[in-house]
Specification:
By secondary structure, the chain is α+β, with helices and mostly antiparallel strands. 38% of the residues lie in helices and 26% in strands. It comes from Agarivorans albus MKT 106.
């Protein structure tokens, strides 16, 4: 397919899509792998586009690929046009009524296992033509470079280039097992936690300082966990085995609190990490057009997780 302008030569849609992909990934090799072609092929395509436009789009070195200012301007104009083109094709094919295709989603391992997995059967029944690929990782993935359609991210957001929508507000609870509390010093005020074994996350926002709030009173308590893990589920298991106190999201420990396996500590205080933003966010790569498969999955999560 070509875009034809009276003042310019016909422009190949595929070539433009490759430019957008390279701009996002900042790598010929990544895009080549995604398209199952040689990196040299992607490089030649970009070089051909640069020749047609009469300008340089990327500064190349042996290790880096950096977009020029011209590339940034071109990307901001071209991306919405290509997305509108894709939308027109989808509507023509009836995809608006029947979302389909591969949907790549990333979420944390614990949230995926404990919250998302039980809902997937219901989603598949509603949208049988969508092939859902759920990547569970406790590392922060690169949505653009790794070609995810949607990422669920916890806490503060640092990448302003992505589109964010709040999925869920999360309360963090300080918890321990009854057996641990019976054999340990009493906890009557926030500073008392420093006398205890703490099981924490490896993330800086949650393993350096806890913020305790009660009405207009707040206290920042520096902490040093004796054990740090990247997985909320693993932290909960450690706490269930009487290894100490932990600050965990309400969705992680709700059933354990109901059953009595865990006990909430300092329940009259609100507790967060160093950054008080404890929400879970949906992140998208585009500010303009959202594929139907992404839209229906996002709405499905919003509809089904409000009571989590």
């Amino acid at each position: 397919m070509q875009i034809i302008n009276a003042d310019f030569a016909p422009m190949d849609i595929t070539k433009l899509k490759i430019f957008v992909a390279v701009y996002r990934a900042k790598s010929f090799a990544v895009v080549a792998k995604q398209r199952n072609v040689a990196a040299s092929s992607i490089s030649r395509t970009i070089a051909g586009l640069e020749e047609e436009l009469g300008l340089r789009l990327f500064q190349r070195t042996t290790r880096t690929l950096n977009p020029t200012q011209a590339a940034e301007r071109y990307y901001l104009r071209m991306e919405p046009l290509l997305e509108e083109f894709d939308l027109a094709q989808q509507e023509a094919l009836g995809e608006t009524l029947q979302p389909s295709g591969l949907l790549r989603v990333s979420a944390s391992s614990s949230f995926g296992q404990l919250v998302l997995a039980p809902l997937l059967g219901k989603f598949q029944q509603a949208y049988p033509k969508i092939q859902l690929e759920l990547d569970l990782s406790d590392s922060r993935v690169d949505l653009i470079a790794q070609q995810f359609d949607l990422v669920l991210r916890h806490g503060a957001l640092n990448d302003s280039s992505l589109v964010a929508r709040k999925l869920l507000d999360v309360d963090y609870l300080l918890v321990a097992s009854s057996a641990y509390l019976k054999r340990s010093a009493k906890i009557q005020q926030p500073f008392d936690v420093t006398d205890h074994n703490l099981v924490g996350f490896t993330y800086r926002e949650l393993n350096k300082q806890w913020l305790f709030s009660q009405g207009k009173t707040s206290q920042k308590i520096a902490i040093t966990p004796s054990l740090s893990l990247s997985s909320a589920a693993a932290i909960k298991e450690c706490v269930n085995h009487d290894m100490g106190l932990a600050l965990l999201a309400d969705w992680t420990v709700r059933e354990d609190l109901k059953s009595g396996k865990l006990v909430q500590v300092l329940s009259d205080w609100q507790v967060t990490g160093a950054n008080s933003d404890s929400a879970i966010w949906l992140l998208y790569p585009s500010r303009t057009f959202m594929p139907n498969k992404v839209a229906v999955f996002s709405q499905f999560l919003l509809d089904n997780l409000q009571s989590v």
